[in-house]
Amino acid sequence: MLEICGIKAKYGHTEVLHSVTLRAETGRITTLIGGNGAGKTTTLNCIVNILKPYEGQILWKGQEITGLRSKDIVRLGISLIPEGRHVFPRMTVRENLEMGAYIRKDANGVQKDFEWILELFPVLKERLGQEAATLSGGEQQMLAIGRSLMGNPDLVLMDEPSMGLAPIVVEEVFSVVEQIMAMGKTVLLVEQNAALALNLAHEGYVIELGRIVLRGTGKELLRNPEVEKAYLGL
Amino acid sequence: MQFFLNGLPIGAIYSLVALGYSLIYAASGVLNWSQGDMVMLGAYVGFTVFFFLKLGFISALFLAIVVVALLGALVQYMILRPLREREAPPINVVIATLGVAIICRNLALGIWGPDPQILPSPVSSRPLSLAGVSVTPQDILVLSVGITLMLILHSFLKNTREGKALRAVAQDRYAAQLVGIDPERSDAVAFAASAGIGAAAGILIAPIFFVTFNMGASIGLKGFVAAVIGGLGTIPGAIAGGFFLGVVESLAGGLISSGYRDAITFSLLIVVLWLKPSGLFLRKNRQKV
């Protein structure tokens, strides 16, 4: 389980997270929804300490990880699939997947995950020798997910996986999110597409201007009139 | 034709130095102004190994690469990393490398003295005539060692764990952190590789040019020009830029005037910056490390 307790963070002198507290339960999908600039991506970047929160605590499996170096947090089984995919553009699909397993020493396990990920995303199999920059947006998103899974993480943080993708590709990506959860992994999903995310998630949080303003199960939030008005466009 | 050929060995040297600039620039975004001084230190370490330890040319080459590569990694870990951890602006990091350059020069002056030294070549420098043009065995040595080093670097970047991590950092530093790579470590690898390659360049030119404590200034600048002409931050660009510059210098020196060689070189740099600032030899997509 991931627990974030009252973290605050700033960019330069501007405080962007005023107090964020949330929990992502083991083996479940938790979602964090909110508008542009509300602090969703910042929250994820704090978890992996790309941005260091200056107050508050982050606990993973009961152990405090606040302030640990990113490379060590990754080694504790936390993987962030970043907004905008961030595949290695001039590496082949195969090399990108290999880089995902950079922290692993178990060659057999890596090989097994590699085969499993190619089954999950057959389109990547056809493109193994191609440079990632030549892939379509949807393919790059699948590669970013595949690369993350190659590290065999226990907690997957997903930042806007649906962004800029055609609806049919979004469906494919989200079905993978469910499969990831079905493997016992914990998922924290950040989305602007609130309807999609809340339908999928067990638990949801709403963030506004750097503060968590609502929490509830996915179903509850879907029916919440404020959420409907602000995020579901009803 | 003769001038063209004459330009190739010195071109190989420029390529090696340019590779040093581009590797570090691609990995960490830093212009390392001590690159030329790694060449100088390589030459002096080789000189010391040769004359005082009385070992052969190959050992001198090998030891110079190792010693200077370690020094390069040390520069990154001891000087540049602390700066970045204090969130120093990039220009300060670049200025610090200039400081490293001056320190190296001064130390070299103190250790090896102000007199120019020369390292005897392991092969003859008497020209051989081949199909109407003349080449010296020394030229062939420089070219073959230079190209071998480029191939080793290529294979390192393509096939090793550290090499791939370095490419990942160069292509997307943020994503590299997300897969668990320590970018500071990759920077150190880039500094070590650059310094090692520079040291090799130093040994290779030591039998041709005098070894002096301030030789790094001019060779460093030439290597930098080569890197920019080829497209800073790119490996093929650095190699092509180095050979191109070597040949242009040789042609300019031979056909126009050797006195104006540097003026011609830097005019060329300015023309490239005007017309094709991303480098002469790049395809449309920027090919980073």
Q: In angstroms, what separates the terminal alpha carbons of chain B?
A: 32 Å
Q: Approximately how much beta-strand content do the residues of chain B carry? A: under 5%
Q: What level of helicity do the residues of chain B show?
A: over 70%
Approximate shape of chain B: globular
Topology, number of strands of chain A = 10
Which band does the percent of strand residues of chain A land in?
25-35%
Whole-angstrom Rg of chain B: 18 Å
Which structural class is indicated by helix and strand composition of chain B? Answer: mainly alpha
User: Which ranges of chain B are low-confidence, i.e. pLDDT below 50, for 5 or more consecutive residues?
Assistant: none
DSSP helical segment count of chain A: 10
Question: How many E strands of chain B?
Answer: 2
Biggest β-sheet: strands ordered side by side in the sheet of chain A: 6-7-8-3-9-10
Shape annotation of chain A: globular
- The SSE string of chain B, one letter per element, is HHHHEEHHHHHHH
Taking the alpha carbons of the first and last residues of chain A, their distance comes to 34 Å
Order of helices and strands of chain A: EEEHEEHEHHHHEHEHEEHH
Largest sheet entry of chain A: 6 strands, mixed
